[in-house]
Structures are given as structure tokens and as C-alpha cells.
Prior knowledge:
8-stranded antiparallel beta sheet, 7% helix, 21 strands, 6-stranded mixed beta sheet, GLEYA_adhesin_domain, globular, mainly beta, Jelly Rolls
Amino acid sequence: MxxxxxxxxxxxxxxxxxxxxxxxxxxGCKPRGIGTEGFEMSLYHYGNxxxxxxxxxxxxxxxxxxxxxxxxxxxxxxxxxxGSSSGITNLDFNYRTNDVCKANEGILPENFHxxxxxxxxxxxxxxxxxxxxxTSGIYKFNLEADDLAYLSFGAxxxxxxxxxxxxxxxxxxxxxxxxxxxxxxxxxxxxFLDAGVYYPIxxxxxxxxxxxxxxxxxxxxxxxxHSDFNEHVYQFSDEKGGCANEVRYSTTSWSxxxxxxxxxxxxxxxxxxxxxxxxxxxxxxxxxSSSSIDTTxxxxxxxxxxxxxxxxx
Length: 313
């Protein structure tokens, strides 16, 4: 894959690889029941030409197109679905070869729990799950990829809470995009997460030709780095209507000339059915009148058991 990327793709990558290094407040939930551990993986075909084009490349740039990464384009691309596995807690993949313009077959590392042969030189992989935050604080995710990986995090962004099947092929914004080139093939993103909450996580990876690399690690609020997601990524069954994180807003005036979100608070309310409802309050300052409008409200199905945590933006 160490071929030059054409100017159009470089421009595309420049526009879309920008990401915030400040901590974002992701949305999560508390699904019902007991989850099963690990990421789920789905594999899809991504063919190459086997003979060079006029630029000397055997790979296609389709994996960079919005229609491929969003709306499920990868699902129906060329040969489509290959196979799947589950229970994955380590995402390390490092395939090295000097071959180009060849579809080399082999077996993924055993940590992917997939024993059938695929073309390691050219394929697409989707990894999904719910990341469990054991403690509140800032989590830093570090992603490396050759050729390309898209990381989406949080409910309504990676996929809908308790509604993965119907929403995973059409994610929201990509929180982190890593595109291989001669200078860099890694990036990082920070999220403020609340203890005891599960956060949808989605990673789409593509190897277009020749060598391939994928690595996802995270650093917890204590500063410890983890390459294994053991006891931190789970699967839950979808529920009719989902299990949405309820969002509220508290708006006050200030003397500034712009609107700003200066803080968030996340409440976990235990309902009469024993399950939690997540309510996130965004505190917003607007340059309007001096009156305060508080639009927060409690869940109608809440008991007295309420926990909360706050973060400053």
C-alpha cells in the first residue's frame, strides 16, 4: 500500500481527518440484561484490480467515498458480506508483505476468532460493541491504521442505543479518521465518560492492497493504557424503541455576545422496572434577557435512586 494517493483523495482526507483533541461528552445508556463480552466483527469484500491502472496502482479509491463509508455502501460493495465473529477484545492486526497487485489469502490473527481464509491484502472489517466506563473521567482512544479506519463513538453517532441493527450502517459523525500516508497513520481522541454507562463504539477498517495495519487502544482516567478491551466492551440485544439517553437543556443569560455550552451533568435514574434511564443536561449561556429558563425535568418512571456526575466543557 505504500503508493502515492492521488490529489483528490489527499484533499478529501485533509478535510475529513480533522478531529477535536479536547474531551467530548459522549452519549451512552444502560441496556437491559447481561451483556456478552467483546466486539462483534463483520467482514466484507474489497477487491483490487490485480493489474496496474494508468497511475500504476492496483487499488481502487472507492473506500474513500461517502457512499462507501455511510449508508451501508460497504455492505453491498463487490462481493459483499464474507463472515462474522464475536467475543473479540484485542483489535491488533499487522500484516506485512512486499507483494502489490496480488490478492494474498490467509487467516486473521487468532484474536479475531475467525478461522476461515480471506484476502488479507484487501478487505473491509466492521467492529461494533458497547464500551463500558468503569470510572468517570477522560478516556483517550488511540487509533492506527493502514489503509483507513473510521471510529465513531457514542449513542446516535456510532449507532443507536439498543438499536444497533437498524442504525449501524449509517453512523453519525466520525470522531476519528486515520488514513495511511507517508507521514502519519495514527490519531487520538478524548471523551469524558460517566462511570457505569455503556457507550456505543463503531470501527470501520479497510485494507485496499498489500500490507495492512489496525490497532485500537485506550488510556483510562488513571493514565493506564489498555490494548485489550476485556471487561470493557459488550454486546446487548436490541430493544423495540431502543433505550435512548434523554437529553435536557438548562439555559441562562450572560453578558457575552455568543451562545456557549459551559457544562454538562449526566443523571442515571433507576426506574420502577429496575433499569436505568440516562438523562444528560447541557447548561447553555445565551446572550439574551436576564431571565433563566430551566427545561430540565425528571423521568416520569423514576424512583428515588438517582446518581449524577458533571463535566466542564
